[in-house]
Design a protein that fits this description.
The structure is a single chain. The chain is an alpha/beta fold. The protein is built from 4 helices and 12 strands. The strands form 2 sheets. It has a 6-stranded mixed sheet with strand order 3-2-1-4-5-12, with helices on both faces. The mean pLDDT is about 90.
Length: about 200
């Protein structure tokens, strides 16, 4: 069983998938208060609900950002501690890759973007089998790099585009499948988050 944690934004997302990537559960929580007060309790609750012992976990997956400072810190610290204590692999994914994953078969360019604060956005461009590095740009420059055929997927950004998806859900499920399929293993001692700067 593979447990996935997403605390990158204002939603706590937890997913549990089997080694063959079959879904056991995927849940989102909004307005829970602080992640530090709720994350471990919610993990314990859902594992008990499905009668799964933590020792049955074979891997942990976590969103490493870009995302909010406090949420990412809590999610990554919890993921590292679980992976280390259970002696199981730790995987990670970026928010921008997970946002693209379920739209990966779109025939034109896909551009993913998240609010970076201070009028800026973190952006990644996907085209056929290639993708750009994560770029930090001014939000008002986003429209300059978009064509009408591009698919724009955003999180926490107020933009307008012909082919636009405003991602409201957590990224725990797509991120888990993406990270495991790509074998994106991390060293628990070296994994660092990609923070969104405070406004």
């Amino acid at each position: 069983m593979i447990l996935s944690i997403d605390t990158g934004f204002d939603i706590l997302g937890l997913s549990l998938i089997k080694e063959d990537l079959g879904l056991v559960f995927s849940v989102d929580y909004r307005q829970l208060g602080t992640f530090s007060e709720n994350l471990v309790a919610k993990i314990d609750f859902h594992l008990k609900e499905y009668q799964i012992d933590k020792k049955e976990l074979s891997a942990i997956v976590v969103n490493k950002g870009p995302g909010g400072y406090t949420g990412l810190r809590v999610g990554i610290t919890t993921a590292k501690a679980l992976a280390y204590a259970l002696k199981i692999p730790l995987y990670s994914y970026t928010s921008l890759d997970a946002m693209h994953y379920k739209h990966r078969f779109y025939l034109k360019r896909v551009i993913t973007a998240v609010n970076a604060g201070r009028g800026e956005a973190y952006v990644k461009i996907f085209e056929k089998e290639t993708s750009s590095d994560i770029k930090l740009i001014k939000q008002d420059e986003l429209s300059k790099i978009l064509s009408d055929e591009d698919l724009l997927i955003t999180k926490n950004l107020n933009v307008s585009h012909k082919n636009h998806i405003d991602e409201k859900k957590s990224l725990s499920l797509e991120g888990a499948i993406f990270a495991v399929e790509r074998n994106l293993k991390e060293d628990p001692f070296l994994l660092e988050p990609v923070y969104i700067r405070e406004n």
